Each structure stands twice: as C-alpha cells, then as structure tokens.
C-alpha cells in the first residue's frame, strides 16, 4: 500500500528533486509512496489561465485565486478516494502554520495519504484555507518564495519514516530527534586527516564502550548547542547513566574551558 501524496503547485517540475534523487527517489520507484502533482493553471477559466490577482484592500504583491486552487484540490481528493483513501489531510505550507518537528512528522507518517497545497506570491485567498485546508504547517519562522521547498522538506522527512524507505545503511540518524538528542560526531577514513586523529575509542572495536562514548557525545553536544532540546529530554526523562555521562562530559569541558 503506497503512501499517496498529491501536491498542488504552479511549478510541478520542482518536485523532481524528490522523485529523481536519493532515498526519496528509491522509495518512489519502490512505490513506498506515490506523488501526483496538480497545476492550478490547468484549472484557470480565462484564456490567459490567470491564477492570481491583486489583493483587495490594496498592498504589495498578488494573491492566488480561490477557484483554480479549489478545483485542483477537488481533483486531488477524487484521486485519493479512488485509491481507497477516505481520510486524507489537506495541508497548506505557510509561515502561519504549526512549526514542523519530529513529533509532527511521525504523526503525519501514520496517515495513508495527504494533499499538500503550495502557495506563491503573497499567499492564497483565505476562503480556500477556510473551505479546504485541514492543517497549516511551517518549516520555520522566515519567508521563502513558495510552498514547494517546504512541501519537499515535509515529504522527505515523512518518507524516511515509512517502512522500507530506509535501507540499513541510512537508518541511524533517525533516532536523534526521536529522543531529543543531537547526533554524535561521525568519522571515516583516513584515521589521521591533516594531523587530526579519529577518537581512538572508535577504533577499539569495543562496541559497548563506543555506544557509551556516542551517547555521551550526543548528550554533550545537545547541552552545548541545543539546551532547549535538553530541556525536552529532561521532560521526556533522562536516565541515571545519561546524567552521569553528561556530568562527566561537563567536567572535561569545564576542565578544558578554564
Ligand atoms: C513557508 C514557510 C513560506 C509565504 C509566501 C510562500 C511563503 C509565499 N511555507 N513554511 N516558512 N511560504 O515562507 O512553509 O507564497
């Protein structure tokens, strides 16, 4: 059963970045998910196939017209229903949306399908949000030129959670945000690079010690770089072992700092 994704966009070719490259391309070829795009311009009524107009009340820029979007979304719903998906979600990517995070991605990955609405210009007619949109999601508190890049961030992060999408080789990084810790440092050949050596513990073959070191590094890096995540970690619950490892790390750090 494929995860069905329909994307409403004026630039369908942008989605090639998902279907033609890397892990998402392989998952698409293996039908772990299926992507369909709908261009609102194909539903525009006039000869110029107009999809935007100036905002009522004045102001800069243009706003996307309701009708072409409404029809594109309706066609996407019809396709998903034909695939047996009765419960789809229409998600509008916008700066007004809920900030995307790992928890949200896990929740959405449990759906059977979703319809992603990509805005352009200043945004879309509010009546489409009222009539058709179930959720608004933002990838960050900044403005980009269109919803397509945000939609692809969402698709990529969800597809990685789908069974069979990740081969064993590329599974590790999943757990980091799963337990609110940053990833441990990674090293590969050569052992010495321009005078910098790989931490000897990683060459020891002692996997218990290596995992302990990696956990300590994840805790330490999170303490240094993302104390906000560490707060979530404490709320989620931190083990005695983890507390001890972090204290040890802080000692070495403080020792080095002073
Ligand atoms: C955005 C974000 C975003 C707003 C106007 C597209 C732009 C333009 N989408 N997370 N941040 N969208 O900036 O999702 O239409």
From TrEMBL:
Annotated positions binding S-adenosyl-L-methionine: 119, 139-144
| CDD domains reported in the protein's UniProt record | TrmD-like
Q: Does the keyword RNA-binding apply?
A: no
Q: Does the keyword Cytoplasm apply?
A: yes
> Domain of life here?
Bacteria
Q: Which reaction does it catalyse?
A: guanosine(37) in tRNA + S-adenosyl-L-methionine = N(1)-methylguanosine(37) in tRNA + S-adenosyl-L-homocysteine + H(+)
Q: Where is the tRNA methyltransferase TRMD/TRM10-type domain?
A: 4-230
Keywords assigned: Cytoplasm, Methyltransferase, S-adenosyl-L-methionine, Transferase, tRNA processing
Q: How does it assemble?
A: Homodimer.
UniProt function note: Specifically methylates guanosine-37 in various tRNAs.
Q: Which family does it belong to?
A: Belongs to the RNA methyltransferase TrmD family.
UniProt xrefs under HAMAP family = TrmD
Q: Write the protein's name.
A: tRNA (guanine-N(1)-)-methyltransferase
User: Which organism's genome codes for this protein?
Assistant: Nitrosomonas communis
């Amino acid at each position: 059963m494929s995860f069905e994704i329909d994307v409403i966009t004026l630039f369908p070719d942008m989605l090639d970045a998902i279907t033609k490259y890397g892990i998402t391309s392989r998952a698409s070829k293996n039908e772990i998910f299926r992507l369909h795009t709908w261009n609102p311009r194909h539903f525009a009524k006039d000869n110029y196939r107009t999809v935007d107009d100036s905002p009522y009340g004045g102001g800069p820029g243009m706003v996307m017209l309701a009708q072409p979007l409404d029809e594109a979304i309706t066609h996407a719903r019809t396709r998903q229903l034909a695939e047996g998906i009765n419960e789809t979600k229409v998600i509008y990517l916008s700066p007004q949306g809920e900030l995307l995070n790992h928890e949200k991605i896990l929740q959405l990955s449990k759906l059977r399908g979703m319809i992603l609405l990509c805005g352009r210009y200043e945004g879309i007619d509010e009546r489409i949000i009222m009539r058709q949109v179930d959720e608004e999601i933002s990838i960050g508190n900044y403005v980009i030129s269109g919803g397509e890049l945000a939609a692809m961030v969402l698709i990529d992060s969800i597809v990685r959670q789908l069974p069979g999408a990740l081969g064993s080789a590329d599974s590790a990084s999943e757990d980091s945000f799963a337990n609110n810790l940053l990833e441990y440092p990674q090293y590969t050949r050569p052992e010495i690079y321009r005078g910098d050596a790989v931490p000897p513990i990683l060459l020891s073959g002692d996997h218990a010690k290596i995992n302990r070191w990696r956990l300590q590094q994840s805790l330490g890096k999170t303490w240094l770089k993302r104390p906000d995540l560490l707060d979530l970690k404490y709320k989620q619950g931190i083990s005695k072992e983890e507390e001890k490892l972090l204290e040890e790390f802080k000692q070495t750090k403080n020792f080095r700092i002073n």
